[in-house]
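Hi Y.,

Following your request, here is the sequence exactly as I used it, all 370 residues.
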Amino acid sequence: MLSPNVLHQHQQMFPHQYLDSNGYPIAYAHPGPPLILNNLTMKAVRVHRFGGPDVLQVDTNVPVPEVGDDQVLVRVIYAGVNPVETYIREGQYSRLPELPYTPGSDAAGYVQQLGRNVTTLKVGDRVFVSGNSSNSSNSGSYSQYVVSDGTYVFPLHPRLSFAQGASLGVPFFTAYKALILRAETKPGETVLIHGASGAVGTAAVQIARALGAIVVGTAGTKEGMDVVSKCGAHHVFNHNHKSYDKKMVEHLGTGFDVIIEHLANINLGHDVQMLNEKARVMIVGCRGAVNINPRHLMGPEASVRGVALGSSTPPEWAQMGAAIVAGIEAGWVSPVINKEYTMDQVAQVHHDIVHSKGAKGKLVLRVADD
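Below is the corresponding structure, written out as C-alpha cells. Let me know if you'd prefer a different format.
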C-alpha cells in the first residue's frame, strides 16, 4: 500500500477521474503483460444473490478488473440499461453469471488502458461498449470501469453524447441483426415494427428507414407515437386501439414483408395473418407461450425466425459495429434517451424498465461526470 504522503502526491498529480475510489491512480496503456490491479478499487453495482431490484447494491470497494492482451479498460461515463439485465438479476435466464457479479453490458466513456494486442484504439479515445455476447468477457458496465474484449469496443463519434453512446449496444445491434443479418430486409419492402417507441424499436425504425424500407411502427401512447414518427417511420399506429392490425393493412393496402416482434406471446397470432409472400417474422422478444395457426404461413411461404444477439459470432459483431459506426458518421443513427438515473437509483431503473407504461426511448445510468 502507498504511504499517505505518496497517496497525497498522486491525488495532486492525477485528475480525479483517473483515481480509484481509494485515491490511487488507475494505470494507463501498457506495452507488456497485463498489469496487476488488485490494489485498485472502484464504485460498482453488485448482485450477491438473485432476486428483485432490492438485491442491487452500490459497493465502493470493488477491484478494478485486470486487462488482458486483447482487452480494453474503459472509464465509464454512462451505462445502458436493458430488460435482459432484469431477467439475469432475477435468476430467470439461460446463462447466469457466478455470484457476486456486476450487471450490464453496454457503456460509453474513455479508453483508460489497452491490452498490447489492441491496435485500433488509443488511450483517451471516446468509445462505446457493446458486450452482450456469449463470446465476450465483459466485466459489467454498471461500474466506474469496465473491461471488454476489443472486438466489442467501438469509436464514439463526437456528434453523439455519452448517454447516446451507452444506448447503442443491445438496442442497435439487436435491431441490425434482426433486420439485416436475419431477415435480409431489402429496400422497398414494407416493415412493421411492434413496440417501436422502445430502445430496440426506435433503433429498428432508424435502420429500416436508412435502408429504404417502408416503415410502419406501433406505440401505446401519443408521446410514444410522436417518438416513432420523429425517428422516421412513414406510418404510426396505436397498438392499444381495437383492431389496429386490420386498420394498418386497410390503410396500407398490403401486408408486411418483415415484422419485428417484441412481444410474440401477445402479437404473433395476429402477425401471421398480415404477411406478404415470402414474409419473415423476427422474434426479438417473448414473455410466454403462444398458439398460432401454421396455415397462415403455408400460403405465402412465410417464416418465423428467432433473434438472439448473444449468439452472434465475432465476425457478425464486427459487421454490425462497422455498419452502426458508419450510420453514426452519416447522421442517421441517433439514439433516443428517455430518462437518466444515478447509480444510487439503480433499483428504480430496474423497476421502471419492466413496469413503466408507454416506452419512449432508452433508460441509462449516469456513472460519472464527463
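DSSP finds eleven helices and 15 strands in the chain.

Thanks again,
Q.
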